[in-house]
Amino acid sequence: MNPICELPGAALAVERGRFPDPLFDPAPDAPGERLAVLAGGCFWCTEAVFRELDGVLGVTSGYSGGDGASANYEAVCTGRTDHAEAISIRYDPARISYGQLLKVFFAVAHDPTQVDRQGNDRGRQYRSAIFHADPAQREVAAAYIRQLDDAKAFVAPIATQLLPLEAFHEAEAYHQNYAALHPTQPYIAAVAAPKVAKLRQQFGDWLRSDSPKDGGLA
Question: Which end of the chain is more exposed for a tag (fewer CB within 10 A), N or C?
């Protein structure tokens, strides 16, 4: 992670009203928890955002897109693997839908118009990607991207890749829940904390009941 402050992307639309709810967001055929794997830059930051949401049962930082042999921080940081820094989100679709997770992903968690970077974090490991677990997830994601394009939610084109989820590799233990454990670390204070603050401001009614409404990271 680059400790220099990540400036908000000029193409990012920050008002919640400019982000429509997904029009195509069907409920799963059967009850039970589901998994979403998303990549939007530094996993410390995306993990911190999604941990706040009601219906999210757990968030794990890791790597997706490459093979198991290269699924380690030292290798991924070179930018020469096929991995992206990603998070695996366990969620209850009866409380939060896949489409709603994607709405937060696009509206708050990252700038999907940036290619192989997020702010000062540069490299293909920071690319925007949705790793769909099945055709239904891919259909919801593709439909929502088209919907955002039609709504002109961003000035620049959405660069998010839609990729089949072949594997998710859990990152090293010290990366897990990093933002909450290191709230004063310069990168966390400059990059992760403002994203969480924006989530709380724009999606306050989507937060867990025990999530701080202001102040520290959950």
Answer: C
At residue 69, does pLDDT exceed 70?
yes
Which pair of tokens denotes residue 113? 């118009």
Residue with tokens 């968690």: 109
Q: What is the DSSP letter of 21?
A: P
Phi-psi region of 136 (alpha: psi -120 to 50; beta: other; left: phi over 0): alpha
Evaluate whether residue 106 is within a structural domain: yes
Residue 101 contacts residue 50 (beta carbons within 8 Å): yes
Amino acid letter, 212:
P
Residue 83 lies in a domain: yes
pLDDT tens by residue, 175-212: 999 999 999 999 999 999 999 999 999 999 999 998 77
* Tokens representing residue 74 in the block: 């030292």
Alpha-carbon gap, residue 43 to 192, rounded angstroms: 10
Asked if residue 171 lies in contact with residue 63, where contact means CB atoms within 8 angstroms, the answer is yes
What is the number of domains present in the chain?
1
User: What CATH number is associated with residue 76?
Assistant: 3.30.1060.10
* Mutual angle of helices 193-202 and 43-50, in 10-degree steps: 30
- Kindly list the catalytic residues: 42
For residues 31-70, b (16+ Cβ closer than 10 Å) or e, as one string?
Answer: eeebbbbbbbbbbbbbbbbbbbbbbbeebbbbbbbbeeeb
| Residue given tokens 């991924």 in the structure block | 76
- Give the predicted TM-score (pTM) of the model: 0.92
